[in-house]
UniProtKB/TrEMBL annotation:
The keyword Transport applies. Belongs to the MIP/aquaporin (TC 1.A.8) family. TIP (TC 1.A.8.10) subfamily. This is Uncharacterized protein. It holds the Pfam family MIP. The lineage of its organism: Eukaryota, Viridiplantae, Streptophyta, Embryophyta, Tracheophyta. InterPro entries: Aquaporin_transptr, MIP, MIP_CS. Keywords: Repeat, Stress response, Transport. It comes from the Eukaryota. The keyword Repeat applies. GO terms for cellular component: plant-type vacuole membrane. Signal peptide: none annotated. GO terms for molecular function: water channel activity.
Length: 248
């Protein structure tokens, strides 16, 4: 029983048209997702004068995350695979489904897409304060890291793997979106439940608020990597073959 190897690839792959198109697709899809999800925080507080930390706010923003992520993943699935999350890309890299140069392009596209979305929101609304991700009182960074890794991102990346098989008929965008919305309800009150380094990166960059930002990277990357490893090791150990992003 062998574990799939990480596909290192070659530097020349980063200049191939199909790889650049995939990175551009990740940029636009991440822009769509971050604009809608972060915008929902701002809109809720603007319209109600209340906090998104209320039960009503959690429901509203979880729906916005679920719908926007499903749409963003669907929009890019035929070009890049619709990762829209550096942790998903990392899980695919660990599983051998994407090469390192292409993964780097995806990460660049995702981070730039998030930054662009938040810059537009900041200009349009004048504030992104309510869209930043912060730890709740009494929640320490180490615990938040575990929450991001085990309870959120691991589930997201595992679901991507599990539902990307052709026999599921393309249900991955819906499944991932629904799980994202559910995890907002479960984790928002504790650590903000970003579950996505790109989603946390845009607001942090625009507002220059980096406190505990490392949690948004370490937790999701650990969870995404473990999900890719376990799914490949336990469920597809004998059927591994490198596939193009459009195939999953």
């Amino acid at each position: 029983m062998s574990i799939p190897r990480i596909a290192i690839g070659t530097p020349a792959e980063a200049t191939r048209p199909e790889a650049l198109k995939a990175a551009l697709a990740e940029f636009f899809s991440t822009f769509i997702f971050v604009f809608a999800s972060c915008g929902s925080f701002i809109a809720f507080e603007k319209l109600t004068g209340g906090s998104v930390a209320t039960p009503e706010g959690l429901v509203a923003t979880s729906l916005a995350h679920a719908f926007s992520l499903s749409a963003a993943v669907s929009a890019a699935s035929n070009v890049s695979g619709g990762h829209v999350n550096p942790a998903v890309t990392f899980g695919a890299l660990i599983g051998g489904h994407i090469t390192l140069p292409r993964a780097a392009l995806y990460w660049i596209g995702q981070l730039l897409g998030s930054a662009a979305a938040c810059a537009v929101l900041d200009y349009s609304t004048g504030s992104l304060d309510s869209a930043t991700f912060a730890l709740a009182a009494g929640v320490i960074a180490k615990r938040a890291r575990v929450l991001e890794a085990a309870l959120t991102t691991f589930g997201l990346v595992y679901t991507v793997y599990a539902t990307s098989d052709a026999k599921w008929g393309g249900t991955a965008p819906l499944a991932v979106g629904l799980l994202m919305g559910a995890n907002i309800l479960a984790g928002r009150a504790f650590d903000g439940a970003a579950m996505n380094p790109a989603l946390a990166f845009g607001p942090a960059l625009v507002r220059w608020a980096w406190k505990d930002h490392w949690v948004r990277w370490e937790g999701p990357l650990i969870g995404g990597g473990l999900a890719g490893f376990f799914y490949e090791y336990f469920f597809t150990p004998h059927t591994y073959q490198p596939i193009s992003p459009a195939d999953y």
